[in-house]
């Protein structure tokens, strides 16, 4: 029986949790034979976190193809690299675009007009007196007039109404045909409507569909969207859920960051989220989930927060909302992978209570921000995989940077002896012919595909690991800032051996034989992995 996986991320925290899941898949911490079908909800489509997620997904897919597509398929399964990038991700797209090739239509917004407000969207000007009085009772004048291009700004009552109004997967065949060119209007029809893959899977009856919804409960978009969407999904699939054909999961992000509000980028009277309200918002949100029965809709619920709040830069949204990766988002991603990876019989049983918690900080001088690897769920596996992949990313990105520099400067003198071992047919003078342009372009494409993803991964790892007490927090930052000629020691990223350095890695790679069943870049990366894995 196959488990088909669907993941809906809502708001900025949802986007960050989904990105952490992508990086975990790269490091072999999330493995799936079936692709994960992604949907994102956010009215603020210019949010930097969403832009970063889409870029990461594209680069992940390119790196996955470059590293795992072996010229000799018969030997592909023998390569340890297959354990990495072991899950695919797909987004809803138009019928003419392959799902795995484009993430342009990843995000759905319940706000379908630019420069609009709740008052305009509800057409309050043409409402009856009774309707107008109802709106005035439920919403303040500021909430009715607030421009929504940057989201719901800590006011979930605005978002829940609009999401409930526009989340409509049950379009008729005629309506679907009329909206076929409007990917926003028929977004949910394609995701979970009558003609969707989910509907076909349920009708077939032999497989199981798991749908995970992730977002925060203390802000605006996540707090508005998560209960609304899970309620809609439960109503839509109530019969299939009772039959065990559909299983729902929730990741609810409790407060884990704060910010000091400023007036930067704000206009007079403009609404914004208030960090001082996060705890109170969360308390009432959890009470609502329990009292309304929404908590009973999910087969599994994961609540993730932190008693130490990371201090973030204040932003009203858009490109300025560029948040670093934080540990709770990675813990949430582990929860998502656990939900998707559980055995069928486990999710059919009664709801289990799972928990992972921080160790007590009894020492008054202890740094509350610091966390040990032992405090992560799946601690040993997480520590081994993350550190191995991080060392691999550091070594590979350095090699690929040097190889790219040689590629871009055909006349330069080659000082790197390892280069001729792997790329001997890429330079005139190394062989008795001029390399073909197609070969050179193929090499450049392969190098770029892998390196762009690895650099983004290292930025994520730098943010995520900076508070892990057994990791030198400056290691990755120094590496990213260093020149290609600077020596560095891998042992600074968790002590291993004294000679675990860039210089010894170059020697190892030079003396290792490239595999004949792989491209030059694949052979290079495979040998780098062999050296950096511990």
Question: Helix and strand layout, with pairings?
Answer:
Elements: E1 3-10, H1 11-26, E2 36-41, H2 48-68, E3 89-91, E4 107-108, H3 118-121, H4 129-138, H5 141-145, H6 156-166, H7 173-178, H8 187-192, H9 197-204, E5 208-216, H10 221-236, H11 238-242, E6 246-253, E7 257-259, H12 278-291, E8 300-304, E9 310-312, H13 327-341, H14 344-348, H15 379-408, H16 417-422, H17 437-465, H18 475-481, H19 502-511, H20 520-532
Question: Helical stretch count?
Answer: 20
Give the tally of β-strands. Answer: 9
Question: Which word captures the global form?
Answer: globular
**The CATH C-level class name of the largest domain:** Alpha Beta
Could you state the CATH homologous superfamily of the largest domain?
Answer: Tubulin/FtsZ, GTPase domain
Q: How many domains in all?
A: 2
Order of helices and strands: EHEHEEHHHHHHHEHHEEHEEHHHHHHHH
Sheet with most strands = 7 strands, parallel
Summarize the structure.
The chain is α/β, with parallel strands linked by helices. The protein is built from 20 helices and nine strands.
Would you kindly provide a written description of the structure presented here, covering whatever features stand out?
By secondary structure, the protein is α/β, with parallel strands linked by helices. It has 2 domains: 3-65 and 83-111 and 148-357, 3-Layer(aba) Sandwich (Rossmann fold); 379-532, no CATH class. It is built from 20 helices and 9 strands. The chain has helices at residues 11-26, 48-68, 118-121, 129-138, 141-145, 156-166, 173-178, 187-192, 197-204, 221-236, 238-242, 278-291, 327-341, 344-348, 379-408, 417-422, 437-465, 475-481, 502-511, 520-532, and strands spanning 3-10, 36-41, 89-91, 107-108, 208-216, 246-253, 257-259, 300-304, 310-312. The strands form 2 sheets. Strands 1, 2, 3, 4, 5, 6 and 8 form a 7-stranded parallel β-sheet that branches. A two-stranded parallel ribbon has the order 7-9. α1 (11-26) links the parallel β1 and β2. α6 runs parallel beside α10 (221-236), α15 (379-408) packs across α20 and α17 packs antiparallel against α18 (475-481). The protein is globular, with a radius of gyration of 25 Å. It starts with a strand and ends with a helix. Mean pLDDT is 80; it is low at 73-78, 94-100 and 428-432.
């Amino acid at each position: 029986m196959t488990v088909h996986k669907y993941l809906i991320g809502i708001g900025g925290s949802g986007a960050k949790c989904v990105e952490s899941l992508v990086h975990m898949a790269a490091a072999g911490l999330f493995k799936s034979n079936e692709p994960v079908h992604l949907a994102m909800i956010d009215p603020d489509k210019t949010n930097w976190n969403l832009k970063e997620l889409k870029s990461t997904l594209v680069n992940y897919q390119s790196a996955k193809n470059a590293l795992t597509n072996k010229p000799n398929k018969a030997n592909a399964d023998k390569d340890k690299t297959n354990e990495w990038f072991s899950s695919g991700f797909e987004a809803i797209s138009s019928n003419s675009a392959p799902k795995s090739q484009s993430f342009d239509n990843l995000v759905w917004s319940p706000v379908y007009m630019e420069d609009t407000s709740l008052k305009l969207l509800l057409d309050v000007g043409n409402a009856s007196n009774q309707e107008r009085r109802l709106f005035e009772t439920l919403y303040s004048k500021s909430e009715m007039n607030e421009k929504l291009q940057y989201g719901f700004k800590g006011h979930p009552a605005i978002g829940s109404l609009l999401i409930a109004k526009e989340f409509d997967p049950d379009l008729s065949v005629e309506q679907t045909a009329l909206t076929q060119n409007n990917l926003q209007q028929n977004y949910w029809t394609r995701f979970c409507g009558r003609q969707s893959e989910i509907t076909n899977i349920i009708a077939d009856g032999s497989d199981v569909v798991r749908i995970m919804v992730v977002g925060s409960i203390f802000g605006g978009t996540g707090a508005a969207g998560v209960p609304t969407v899970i309620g809609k999904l439960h109503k839509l699939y109530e019969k299939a859920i009772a039959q065990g054909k559909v299983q729902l999961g929730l990741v609810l992000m409790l407060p884990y960051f704060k910010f000091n509000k400023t007036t930067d980028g704000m206009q007079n009277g403009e609404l914004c989220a208030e960090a001082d309200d996060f705890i109170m918002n969360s308390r009432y949100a959890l009470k609502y989930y329990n009292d309304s029965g929404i908590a009973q809709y999910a087969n599994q619920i994961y609540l993730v927060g932190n008693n130490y709040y990371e201090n973030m830069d204040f932003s009203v949204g858009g490109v300025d909302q560029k948040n670093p990766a934080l540990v709770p988002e990675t813990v949430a991603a582990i929860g998502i992978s656990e939900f998707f990876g559980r055995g069928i019989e486990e999710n059919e049983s009664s709801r289990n209570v799972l928990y992972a918690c921080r160790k007590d900080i009894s020492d008054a001088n202890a740094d509350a921000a610091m966390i040990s690897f032992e405090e992560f769920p799946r601690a040993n596996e997480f520590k081994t995989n993350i550190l191995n992949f991080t060392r691999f990313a550091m070594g590979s990105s350095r090699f690929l940077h040097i190889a790219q520099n040689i590629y871009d400067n055909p006349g330069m003198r080659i000082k790197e002896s390892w280069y001729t071992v792997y790329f001997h047919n890429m330079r005139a003078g190394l062989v008795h012919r001029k390399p073909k342009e197609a070969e050179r372009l193929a090499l450049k494409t392969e190098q770029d595909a892998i390196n762009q993803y690895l650099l983004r991964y290292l930025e994520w790892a730098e943010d995520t690991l900076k508070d892990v007490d057994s990791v030198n927090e400056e290691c990755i930052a120094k590496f990213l800032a260093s020149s290609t000629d600077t020596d560095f020691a891998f042992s600074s990223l968790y002590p291993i051996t004294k000679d675990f350095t860039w210089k010894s890695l170059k020697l190892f790679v030079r003396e290792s034989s490239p595999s004949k069943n792989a491209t030059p870049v694949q052979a290079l990366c495979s040998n780098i992995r062999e050296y950096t894995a511990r």
